[in-house]
Amino acid sequence: MRAKALSTRGSAAVVLLVALAVHARTVAFGFTGLDDRDLVVGDQAFLANPASLLRVFGRSYLHVVDPSHVYWRPLVTASYVLDAQWSGVRPWGFHATNVLLHAVASVLVLTLLRRFALGRGVSLAAALMFAVHPALASAVAWIPGRNDSLLAAMALTSWLLFLRRRWLAHLLFFALALMAKETALVLPVLWGVQLACAPGRRDRRRWRVVGAWGALVVARFVAHPGAPQATAQEILANLPLIAIAFGKIALPVRPTVLAVASDLPLWPGLLAAAALALAVWRLPRARRPVIAFGALAFVLFLAPTLAVPGTLVLDHRLVLPAVGALIVFGELLRALRPERRTLAAFAGVGVAALGLVTVGFEGAFRDPGAFAREAVASSPRSPMAHFCLGQVEQRAGNDDRALAEYRTALALGPAEVVHNDIAVIAMKDGRWAEAEAELRAELALNPGYGTAEYNLAIVLRREGRMPEACEAVKSALEGSLASDEGAERERERDCAP
Q1: Average pLDDT over residues 184-210
Q2: What are residue 313's phi and psi, to 5 degrees?
Q3: What sign results for the dihedral spanned by CA atoms 469, 474, 479, 484?
Q4: CA distances from 163 to 169, 175, 443, 448 (A)
């Protein structure tokens, strides 16, 4: 028993150290300028206040975009508050937390895989691949990607406690998972399948937990009502994401930072699915219930992404789906019954190859310029990628290049905030009528966007239309600029009753 315990601890230590080593250099990275600028840099007044640990429950995660946005992730924002206490606005502290969270999640994956009786060697190999996988790199190297690593840490802990029948602790971590990301809502479905298939399923006491799951889900929506409003047509259009996601995990040829589905190939996922079906057919030792459960976990964890309107593909959303895929791959590898040396060689080559790809790819998150250029290179039809590159050029003073990128973004599809940034360039050159038109176009796409309302107030004041300017300032203060001192001074100066 003691030797087994030491072996377990040794495997966990290996996974932890490999995850830390591969991702360590991201601690020296800066901000990318996308989301982290709003959620961390621009929110420092909120994050620096320790009292905000309680206030996080009263606002939307993407409050800058829309104060009533459906995303409610107070645990993620609370983690930013804790980072700000010791790191301030310096990015290294936030990056260090991301690395640590992923390392912890990797150890939890190891522990979970062992619960499926895959064997120590197979479980270790699969957990190491999770730790260094390129498709999960953005969850580590991009600060806002933390929501999926934090979700994984809470969800996997809750799952393990569920398997051990530690009900109160299980429910506590499920509640935390619900406060990390909306994907946690599918966890009871997965656990319900395990509960229904477990011995002693007629014991009514074990089903009380189902009611507790329901109560926590209801409490989540009472705390913050709303859900993504994707139409049935949009969900159907997003179905290819299943093949794309499976391909990114099974054959991580080209990870991406910001992509649209039309720029991503289906063939890796279809090829991997065909190989999987053939392996299941040719391996009679493979436990089909385990494979089916892993496939179910993969699809369930990916399902919330299909319900998000739009075509943006973000790799960090693959953290939990990767766990389901690894259950499937791990079972197939176990069924092959490789010799210890063969397994060690396979794991060593695979982990080394994946780690090298990850280290090379993570450089894209080093700074806004590297991020934007990689985004455009890997997905030239992504409006968001061109928008990011436009912002990089605008901050560098290259207004003509910025406008070209913004126009490209708009030509590829509707993109929030782009019209506002075009208006800022027009305001700089004194083209007030053009700026007003762009700002009104922005607000038509993005109602309640306080920055656009505030900029519109400046334009209207320049044009001498003070009553309209005051209304715009009022709207800005009622929206996402509710605590903005500049907007408040604007109102006090020119719009005082």
Answers
A1: 82
A2: -110, 120
A3: positive
A4: 12, 17, 49, 45
Q: Label residues 423-441 b or e (16+ Cβ within 10 Å = b).
A: bbbbbeeeebebbbbbbeb
Rounded to 5 degrees, what angle do the CA atoms 423, 429, 434 make? 40
Number of Cβ within 10 Å of residue 186's Cβ equals 18
Q: How far is Cα 444 from Cα 440, in angstroms, rounded to an integer?
A: 6
Query: Where residue 473 falls among pLDDT bands split at 50, 70, 90?
Result: confident
In 174-304, which ranges are E strands?
259-260
Model confidence over 59-89: pLDDT tens digits? 999 887 777 888 999 999 999 999 999 999 9
Of the candidates 255, 267, 263, the residue with the CA atom closest to the CA atom of residue 382: 263
- As a residue count, the chain comes to 497
Please list the residues that pair with 313 across neighbouring strands.
Answer: 259
- Rounded to two decimals, what is the model's pTM? 0.91
At 152 the pLDDT is 98
Name which of 301-305, 322-326, 412-416, 452-456 the model is least confident about. 412-416
Rounded to an integer, what distance in angstroms lies between the CA atom of residue 403 and that of residue 399? 6
Q: What are the two backbone dihedrals, phi and then psi, of residue 295, each rounded to the nearest 5 degrees?
A: -65, -40
Per-residue confidence (pLDDT) for residue 256, from 0 to 100: 94
> pLDDT at position 205, please?
66
* Residue indicated by tokens 């606005």: 89
What the block records as the tokens of 378 is: 């890997």
Stretch 379-384: mean pLDDT: 94
Instruction: Find out whether 75 and 176 touch, Cβ atoms under 8 Å.
Output: yes
Cβ-contact 134, 361 below 8 angstroms: yes
Q: End-to-end alpha-carbon separation of the chain, Å?
A: 78
Element (H or E) spanning 103, and its range? Answer: helix 91-115
- Determine phi and psi for 69, rounding to 5 degrees: -60, 145
- Residue 259 host element (H or E): strand 259-260
Q: Which helix (H) or strand (E) holds 413?
A: none
**pLDDT over 50 (residue 6):** no
Give me the pLDDT at residue 292, please. 96
pLDDT, residue 3, reads 47
Name every residue whose Cβ is closer than 8 Å to that of residue 443 and which is 6 or more positions away in sequence: 449, 452, 453, 456
The pair of structure tokens assigned to 144 is: 């806002």
Structure tokens at 35: 């989301």
Q: Can you state the angle between helices 267-282 and 319-336, rounded to 10 degrees?
A: 30
Least confidently predicted of 125-129, 149-153, 291-295, 302-306: 302-306
2-34 burial: b if 16+ Cβ within 10 Å, else e: eeeeeebeebbebbbebbbebbeebbebbbbbb
